[in-house]
Each structure stands twice: as structure tokens, then as C-alpha cells.
Design goal:
Number of strands: 8
Helix content: 40-55%
Largest sheet: 4 strands, parallel
Shape: globular
Distance between the termini: 30 Å
Strand order of the largest sheet: 2-1-3-4
Bound molecules: iron/sulfur cluster
Number of helices: 23
Mean pLDDT: 93
Structural class: alpha/beta
Strand content: 5-15%
Number of domains: 1
Low-confidence stretches: 1-5
Length: about 525
């Protein structure tokens, strides 16, 4: 009887075939949802098998060093939050069926697989307890998480780890409450509370000793913006290992400043050689970047399909995978290319058959500005609640030219180009042209009806352009929906308040009715 009410308008046979029509009732305000979404018999099986595979990846990870990993769970506050990974994938696959459900699982499984390798290496090498694997630790080069990984392609015997990625960046997308202690700790050290939560949390994690201790050296960076300069200065004092500051010019379009980036890259390579005893190998670098270029071709294929009337991938599933492949993996692991091929084959199949991307697709949308980490699956909610399909995200539209894999001088220049256009930086820095005209170009290319405009209250460049965004959207007749958030601090603007800003616009301006009314208002303040 209860099920009948929640799926009104559907017979039992239809329910078996298509699954839950309304899924908001799965959220009751607790840590986890009351049960998994029922997607119809066939898709529930697909979902369940993939859910088991995620657990399989996590179990395989714990078997790499059971004692040290178990000790990490009781030492580092961010480690237990990774138990929320399956719930995170569930949130990102909310309402999905068919091809899009499979794509979502393929992409996220690869990211989880890579993440577990980083954590395992960190736990095994951690010298905090006096039993860290020193051989492994010497091979590790730590990077600021805002730095690209491509340089490590020329050092095949070393392991590059984006240092803050697992203790701060990625975990903040899985557990919305994890960064609060970091933020409070560094603010009690005197950091102004209007600083962006990304560098704030990174610096706070250093103050709370949330980073396992390891590595031969650290590559700090000034990217994407001034906040990183502050975070680097706090972190360097804690890490106590040799640090190289990689500082790319902000006005990256100006080819006159390219030489400065090239010199910085050369200096960084020399620094790594000095501190690890390894030699840079052009052969290894070119081999890895050929793979990176192949991945880029496949990414371009995804963009091309999404610009048509039959898009096949949407939301954080595509944006996060692109960020991962572009910046974190950087072409170094062949498994990333394998996933690209698998997903693109599913997309091509859907495109040839002219399959709708979701069963409730209504509006084509673009997401612009830096997204909220504590609501990384916001595009999934947009789709499931209002039928708004996010076809492109500012975070994935980075450098889209292949890197030179033949000429050493040209290869250095391309490295400088790709590094200065890391995720977030390309459209938040480097001048007005990178932010506004670029957005309207993307809107046109993707034939978008709506722009979801994140209003991150501490991202100064974007905040400074707010009036111009409004004015130019009005002139062009584009629906621009402002969604405020505070990136890693859900206390400033909650997930619920983010949803309210869309609900109000859709009801008052668009006169729309929700696809799933049960998702308009629900409680998830305490969920992962
Ligand atoms: S969100 Fe804005 S302020 Fe924060 S790190 Fe990114 S570019 Fe900088």
C-alpha cells in the first residue's frame, strides 16, 4: 500500500520494469538513505553488481597492508569517511537507468580504484609511527593537489602523490562534514574566515596533523589562485621536507610569459632529480603523453556527442572523470584510457540508437564557476528533480590541445600551457575573456537553455564579475540560475538552501512542475 502511494500512477508491473518514480522519501535525515533506489529489475541488477564491485575495490585495497590501513582508520579522521564511497556513487547515480547508469559506475569505479592506491601508498610509507617503508617513501614526490601530474611521466621509477587529495579534496565530496574541523582549526590560528575553504581546509589539515608523513620532496604551487600561496606557506612549515614552488603566470594567454612557465618546469625537474637521484626520461614522458593525447581524443568525442540533440553523458559523472584524467592521472595509468574506451563505446551505442540521456530529460544546461564539494552530486539532483541535464561543466573545459610528443622544446612549452590551465584556474583566472565571453560561447555550442551559475561566496574573481554575468545573460535572454554555496563548508549555505534557489527559479520564472515532487524539499543535512 505504502509503495502504491509513493509510486502513484504506476501499476505493479510498471514498477517492476521502471522502478521508483519518487525517490525523495528515501531521505529521512539520517546518515544514510532508508534503502537503495529500486530502478526496475534489470537496472537494479546492473546497479547492484556495480555496487558490489565498488566494495570489491575497497576490500582489495585493505588487503594491501591490513595492519597499517586499520591503524590509519583510527589515526586520521578522514580515513573512515571513505566508507561513504558507495553512498557517494549512489547519490551520483540518483534516478539513472540504462546506459547512463553503466557510464556512471564505470567512471567512478576507476576514480575509486586510483584513490585506494594513493591511500595504500600513503599508509605503507607513513613514517609517523617509526615503521614506514623508507624505500617507498624516498620514491614518493608529493605534489600540491592543485598541480598537474604530467611531469611524473618523465620519472617512471618515482611515484607522484597529490598530497592533499585524499585527506581533504576528494573526501570532502564524499563526506560533507569532514572539512569543518580543518576550517575551525586554521581560523583559530588567525586565518580570516572569508578565505576560500579549499586552501583553508588544506592548511587546517596541516595544523591538525592530518597528513601522513612521507616523501622525498614537495612541489608547492600558486594555483589556482592567491589562496594557494597562503596554504603553501602554512603547509611548508609542517611538512619539513624540501619544497619547490611551481608558480605559473596568471595571464596564461599571453605567449610572452610562456618562457617563465617553461623555466619553472625545467627548474622543477632539476629539483626532483636532485632530491630523488632519478633522471628525467624523455622516452618515458613521450610514451605517457601519447596515452594522455589518446584520452584527450576520447574526451573530445564525448564533448562532440553532447553538443548534438542526443547527448549521452551528463553531470558530475563526466566532469569529475575529466578532472581526474586531466589533472590527477595525467595519462600515467593505462587503466584510465581503458575506462575512457569502455564508456565511449557505450555512448556511441546510445548515440547511434538515438537513446534519450535520461527518461526525464527536459532542459539542456551548463554549469559555470567553481562547484560545491559538499554537494558534488548537485547535477544528479537537478536531473532527477527538474529534468535539468548538465551537459558541460566549467571544470572539465580545460586545455583541449594534444601535447607535443616529439620535440623537446615544444614539449616543454605544451607542459607550461597545460599546467597553467589546471582545473578551476582556466576560467577563474587570467582575465575577463576567460570567464564571460567563454561562457556564452559554450552556451551556444551546447545549445543550452539554462546556466547553473555557482555563487561561491569566497571565490573573489567570480564574485567580482557577478553584475556583468547578470547583465549579459539578460541581454542574451539566457536563464541564469544563481546557486550560492561555500565549497567545503556546508554551515554557510546548506545543500537544502542550494536546492531552494533552483526550486524558486523553476517555479516562479519558468512556471515548471518538478519531475519528482518528493525531491523538492527533503532533509539531508546529516547524510554523508
Ligand atoms: S574556488 Fe575560487 S578562490 Fe577557491 S581555490 Fe578555486 S579559484 Fe581559488
Amino acid at each position: 500500500m505504502k509503495q502504491k502511494i509513493k509510486n502513484k500512477g504506476k501499476s505493479f508491473v510498471e514498477w517492476l520494469k521502471y522502478g521508483d518514480k519518487e525517490i525523495g522519501h528515501l531521505y529521512k535525515g539520517g546518515l544514510a538513505s532508508t534503502r537503495r533506489e529500486f530502478r526496475g529489475v534489470k537496472d537494479t541488477m546492473v546497479d547492484y553488481v556495480n555496487w558490489l564491485k565498488i566494495w570489491g575495490v575497497m576490500m582489495a585495497f585493505t588487503s594491501k597492508a591490513p595492519y597499517k590501513i586499520a591503524r590509519g582508520f583510527f589515526t586520521y579522521r578522514w580515513m573512515p569517511s571513505y566508507l561513504g564511497v558507495p553512498a557517494f556513487v549512489d547519490r551520483n547515480s540518483m534516478g539513472l537507468r540504462g546506459n547512463m547508469l553503466k557510464i556512471c559506475h564505470e567512471n567512478f569505479r576507476r576514480v575509486v580504484e586510483a584513490g585506494t592506491v594513493y591511500i595504500a601508498n600513503m599508509m605503507i610509507a607513513d613514517t609517523r609511527f617509526g615503521d614506514g617503508d623508507e624505500e617507498l617513501s624516498k620514491k614518493i614526490v608529493l605534489f600540491d593537489e592543485m598541480t598537474m601530474s604530467q611531469i611524473m611521466g618523465g620519472f617512471p621509477n618515482l611515484i607522484g602523490i597529490p598530497y592533499q587529495l585524499m585527506p581533504v579534496f576528494l573526501v570532502s565530496e564524499i563526506d560533507q562534514l569532514i572539512c569543518i574541523p580543518y576550517i575551525d582549526a586554521i581560523e583559530s590560528f588567525g586565518l580570516p574566515s572569508d578565505t576560500c575553504p579549499v586552501p583553508t581546509s588544506e592548511a587546517g589539515a596541516a595544523v591538525l596533523d592530518a597528513y601522513p608523513l612521507m616523501g622525498s620532496c614537495f612541489i608547492a604551487s600558486t594555483m589556482p589562485c592567491d589562496g594557494s600561496v597562503m596554504a603553501s606557506s602554512y603547509q611548508e612549515r609542517r611538512f619539513k621536507i624540501p619544497t619547490y614552488p611551481l608558480c605559473f603566470p596568471v595571464r596564461y594567454h599571453d605567449e610572452d610569459v610562456l618562457f617563465s612557465g617553461v623555466e619553472d618546469i625545467k627548474g622543477c625537474i632539476k629539483f626532483i632529480e636532485e632530491h630523488t637521484g632519478e633522471k628525467w626520461s624523455w622516452d618515458a614522458y613521450f610514451e605517457n603523453m601519447k596515452r594522455y593525447n589518446e584520452e584527450l581524443d576520447l574526451e573530445m568525442e564525448r564533448w562532440a556527442i553532447n553538443k548534438t540533440n542526443y547527448p549521452q553523458i551528463f553531470g558530475s559523472t563526466s566532469a569529475l572523470y575529466r578532472e581526474f584524467a586531466y589533472q590527477i592521472d595525467g595519462g600515467l595509468d593505462p587503466r584510465t584510457l581503458k575506462t575512457y574506451k569502455k564508456v565511449n563505446a557505450i555512448m556511441e551505442d546510445g548515440y547511434e540508437k538515438r537513446l534519450p540521456i535520461t527518461r526525464h530529460h527536459r532542459y539542456r544546461a551548463i554549469v559555470w564557476s567553481c562547484p560545491s564539494h559538499y554537494y558534488a552530486n548537485f547535477p544528479s539532483w537537478l536531473s532527477a528533480c527538474w529534468g535539468i541535464t548538465v551537459l558541460a561543466d566549467m571544470e572539465m573545459l580545460n586545455y583541449d590541445k594534444p601535447l607535443n610528443v616529439e620535440d623537446e622544446d615544444e614539449a616543454f612549452k605544451d607542459l607550461a600551457r597545460v599546467y597553467s590551465r589546471m582545473v578551476m584556474r582556466k576560467h577563474t583566472n587570467g582575465g575577463y575573456e576567460n570567464v564571460l565571453p567563454e561562457l556564452w560561447k559554450v552556451v551556444e555550442e551546447y545549445n543550452a537553455d539554462i546556466v547553473i551559475m555557482y555563487q561561491h561566496v569566497a571565490c573573489k574573481t567570480m564574485v567580482g564579475l557577478q553584475g556583468l554575468f547578470d547583465e549579459q545573460a539578460r541581454e542574451r535572454g539566457i536563464h541564469l540560475i544563481w546557486v550560492p554555496h561555500d565549497l567545503m563548508d556546508p554551515r554557510t549555505v546548506s545543500r537544502k538552501e542550494m536546492r531552494q534557489s533552483v526550486n524558486r527559479y523553476m517555479e516562479a520564472v519558468m512556471g515548471a512542475t518538478p519531475v519528482d515532487p518528493s525531491l523538492v524539499d527533503f532533509d539531508d543535512e546529516r547524510t554523508w
